[in-house]
Amino acid sequence: MDTDDVERLIEDGLEDAQATVTRARGEHDDDHLAATVVSPAFEGVSLVQQHQQVYDALGEHMTTDIHALELSTYTPEEYEKRER
């Protein structure tokens, strides 16, 4: 699955999300991905629930097209603090 497609699915499935998806193990390993997702939907939600929201946005692709997904999730405020 193309990284742009995964980004689109996440961004379409989560409120005001910004997703950056890369190949976790190099450009030739299509089913191991890494994603950084920033969304206000993560406010006041546990890390497990944040990851579940991303998995829900990806739907069946998590079992058919994506073998592994390394996730980093942030609220917009958390992401801004991380950048400083």
From TrEMBL:
It comes from Natronoglomus mannanivorans. Coiled coil: none annotated. Gene3D superfamilies: BolA-like. This is BolA family transcriptional regulator. The lineage of its organism: Archaea, Methanobacteriati, Methanobacteriota, Stenosarchaea group, Halobacteria. Belongs to the BolA/IbaG family. InterPro entries: BolA, BolA-like_sf, BolA/IbaG_stress_morph_reg. Pfam families: BolA. PANTHER family: BOLA TRANSCRIPTION REGULATOR, BOLA-LIKE PROTEIN 1.
